[in-house]
């Protein structure tokens, strides 16, 4: 399984997972292999060519957790700016401003509805991955000032 880098594909919106069947479980297994191989912090299904609302997040203890149909229920008012990379955009690092806290609802691999609070790096990763499900990429966060600097460099 290769990481997709074609922007036209990555710009598409992903569809909800309607049933957690064998094909979804296989997809999760394959995505775990990819994230391990690529040493990624997170991975979204569209990055491996599947337009389904499914992402993986690597937690700080190194555990890789699948989030199926994730939605952000709540965002903290505090934000910070951190430089992010993306396996689909290997040559880009972009400063992205995001809330430092989010509350997320998702299905686990058994189909249980889970709600969890994420902070810091994990909050950042899940927001980056949910962006992928909506066709949003880190390059969309490049500020106008940085774009102009790039042109004149
Ligand atoms: Ni990414």
The CATH topology name reads Peptide Deformylase
Q: For the CA atoms, what is the radius of gyration?
A: 15 Å
Annotated CATH homologous superfamily: Peptide deformylase
Bound molecules: nickel (II) ion
| Unreliable stretches covering 5 or more consecutive residues | none
Mean pLDDT: 95
Proportion of residues in helical segments: 25-40%
Spell the H/E element sequence.
HHEEEEEEEHH
General shape: globular
Beta fraction of the residues?
25-35%
Q: How far apart lie the N and C ends?
A: 36 Å
Description:
- It is a single chain.
- The chain is of the alpha+beta class.
- Helices cover 29% and strands 30% of the residues.
- A five-stranded antiparallel beta sheet has the order 1-2-3-6-7, with helices on both faces. Strands 4-5 form a two-stranded antiparallel ribbon.
- A hairpin with a 5-residue loop joins strand 2 (54-58) and strand 3 (64-75).
- The longest helix has 17 residues, at 22-38.
- The termini are far apart.
- Nickel (II) ion (NI) binds at residues 86-88, 128, 132.
- Nickel (II) ion binds at residues 86-88, 128, 132.
């Amino acid at each position: 399984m290769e990481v997709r880098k074609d922007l036209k594909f990555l710009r598409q919106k992903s569809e909800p997972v309607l049933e957690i069947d064998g094909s979804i479980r296989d997809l999760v297994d394959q995505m775990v292999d990819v994230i391990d191989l690529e040493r990624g912090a997170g991975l979204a299904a569209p990055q491996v060519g599947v337009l389904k609302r499914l992402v993986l997040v690597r937690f700080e203890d190194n555990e890789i957790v699948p989030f199926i149909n994730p939605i952000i229920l709540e965002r903290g008012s505090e934000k910070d700016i951190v430089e992010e990379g993306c396996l689909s955009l290997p040559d880009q690092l972009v400063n992205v401003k995001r809330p430092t806290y989010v509350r997320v609802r998702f299905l686990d691999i058994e189909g249980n509805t889970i709600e969890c609070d994420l902070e810091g790096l994990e909050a950042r990763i899940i927001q980056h991955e949910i962006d992928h499900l909506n066709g949003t990429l880190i390059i969309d966060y490049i500020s106008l000032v940085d774009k102009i600097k790039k042109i004149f460099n």
